[in-house]
Design a protein that fits this description.
Blueprint (H helix, E strand, L loop, with lengths): L1 H11 L3 H22 L4 H8 L3 H4 L1 H13 L3 H8 L1 H21 L3 H29 L5 H29 L4 H4 L2 H14 L14 H24 L4 H23 L13 H30 L5 H7 L1 H18 L5 H18 L8 H29 L5 H37 L8 E4 L2 E4 H21 L1 H12 L15
Antiparallel strand pairs: 1-2
Helix pairs in contact: 2-8, 2-9, 2-11, 5-8, 5-12, 5-19, 6-7, 6-8, 7-8, 7-11, 8-9, 8-19, 9-14, 9-15, 9-16, 9-18, 12-13, 12-19, 14-15, 14-18, 14-19, 14-20, 14-21, 16-18, 17-18, 17-20, 17-21, 18-19, 19-20
């Protein structure tokens, strides 16, 4: 890939790195926008096809699960097809899936289109990180990854706002067509500015067994977490699925250690700084996707907001978060990653704690302010995680590392949404049962059960508190990562015959 990149640099001159950056920003924004834009349309989809929530939730979960699994195919696609063909091919399939979702006559086709969207987003986003890492010099990689983050994380933040407007003005089908124009722009830009496949590049053998084990693990675990409360955690089906998830996870790690060209080089996690960065990336994924799930649901169910108003609540915070990405990257080029990551982690934890005190009487301005505080923290910490984790690895391991750290963030998001939904449900039922009969006031409908508004509010409060505690615990791996980066210690490298790149 280096020679192809050099040819493009010679053709376009110093402007090339900025042209390539714009290409991946537009593409990443399209992918990331789709991850949350459908969330506010779920009730309308349920009504249109007369399906229960237990099936409709796969509109979100299916996207995240597919994106998580296919992120590990990014390195294989890069080496097999080259950056230009892998990026362009993934974009074309994503566009077709988006149009198919908007025109689907059945709910099954809608869900399938979301799965395909997630799969292509999983391939394209790590490719964008690899391109940034190759076209920017070492001293500017933090800045480059910060600019990339404008697309990668601005999308999930503004998605609910744009989705809410589209649902209220048109209908739920409009949200599927939203990313198509920017995808077409990115497709054209990629044709000119994405590097091709270099002659002589060794093709990677695809790890079908590893991919199958990973997919089965994600499907079993997420389905069990999504349906355990409804079906009962002691039922044979749920117990069996959790056992399958555990067995396939162990088998996946064992196979990847033995595979000659692994889907995920698990040995890179033996580098302490990279392992710590991956843990923080997991937590940040749970934070961004989990809070984007909880906050709109809270203001609609507890405070009576419309979908548009609920989505707009996140818009100012999302814009400010995007502004923090370049600043976080700039800081990570000059200081230990622990500084921006630590500050960002604490800000998000404080935001979650204050939100855990919110109730039906909390003023809108207060909610907006504390959501902004959390998103500023997210923006400061996101880029140093990526830049610091990849900087620790050998140059030849960057493509595997980019896929691994993105995988950690996405699996954090997928599990975060499911677990927070589970915590919300269980804590709400706990508070409803614990309340004296005279305290039960206005009932609401949640998952087919009549519950008390006050208990529902306390369930949200507990969920925000759990998320805040998780971020406080993330200070430990942040300190470990900063110790290895800031202290100038060079981590032991993973053997090249197992790097899979």
């Amino acid at each position: 890939m280096t020679s192809s990149t050099e040819l493009l640099s010679e053709r376009y001159g110093p402007a090339y790195k900025w042209l390539a950056t714009i290409t991946v920003i537009v593409g990443s924004l399209s992918m990331a926008l789709s991850s949350t834009v459908v969330n506010v349309a779920v009730p309308d989809v349920m009504s249109a096809f007369d399906i229960p929530q237990s099936k409709a939730h796969w509109l979100a979960t299916g996207f995240l699960a597919a994106m998580t699994a296919f992120m590990l195919l990014s390195a294989w696609a890069l080496h097999t097809f080259g950056m230009r063909l892998a990026y362009g091919g993934g974009m074309v399939i994503f566009i077709v899936a988006s149009v198919a979702g908007g025109l689907s006559p059945t709910e099954d086709l809608v869900i399938l289109s979301r799965v395909v969207q997630g799969a292509m987003a999983g391939i394209i986003q790590p490719l964008a990180m690899v391109m940034i890492f190759h076209i920017f010099p070492p001293r500017q990689r933090g800045l480059g990854l910060g600019l990339y983050g404008l697309g990668a994380m601005l999308g999930p933040a503004i998605g609910p706002a744009m989705g809410g407007v589209l649902v209220d003005v048109f209908n739920w089908r409009a949200v599927f067509f939203l990313p198509v124009p920017t995808c077409l722009i990115s497709l054209v830009l990629g044709f000119y500015f994405a590097p091709g496949r270099d002659a002589g590049t060794t093709r990677m053998r695809f790890d079908w067994l590893g991919f199958g084990l990973l997919s089965l693990f994600l499907l079993s675990l997420l389905w069990a977490l999504s349906n355990g409360q409804r079906l009962g955690w002691q039922t044979p089906l749920i117990i069996g699925l959790l056992a399958v998830a555990t067995a396939t996870a162990v088998a996946f790690v064992y196979w990847e250690l033995r595979a000659r060209q692994p889907l995920l080089n698990v040995r890179i996690f033996t580098v302490p700084g990279f392992a710590a960065g991956s843990i923080i990336s997991f937590v940040f994924g749970a934070g961004i996707f989990g809070s984007t799930y909880l906050i709109p649901l809270f203001v609609q169910e507890i405070q009576g907001f419309t979908p548009t108003a609920a989505g707009m609540l996140l818009l100012p915070a999302g814009l400010l978060m995007a502004m923090m990405f370049p600043l976080g990257g700039h800081i990570s080029d000059r200081l230990s990653p622990f500084v921006p990551i630590g500050v960002g982690t604490v800000l998000f934890a404080v935001s979650c704690y204050i939100l855990s005190l919110a109730d039906v009487n909390t003023m809108l301005g207060v909610l907006v302010f504390w959501v902004i505080v959390g998103r500023i923290g997210m923006g400061l910490g996101f880029t140093p995680i990526n830049a610091g984790a990849l900087r620790i690895l050998d140059y030849s391991q960057v493509s595997q590392g980019a896929g691994a750290v993105s995988f950690a963030r996405q699996i954090g998001g997928a599990l975060g949404v499911n677990l927070l939904s589970l915590i919300l449900d269980r804590r709400t039922l706990y508070h409803a049962r614990a309340m004296p009969d005279e305290e039960i006031t206005q009932p609401l409908q949640l998952l087919g059960q009549t519950i008390d508004l006050q208990a529902y509010t306390r369930g949200f409060q507990d969920s925000f508190l759990v998320l805040g505690l998780l971020f406080m615990l993330a200070l430990i791996p942040a300190w470990i990562m900063g110790r290895y980066m800031g202290g100038g210690k060079s981590a032991a490298r993973v053997s090249s015959d197992q790097d899979g790149a």
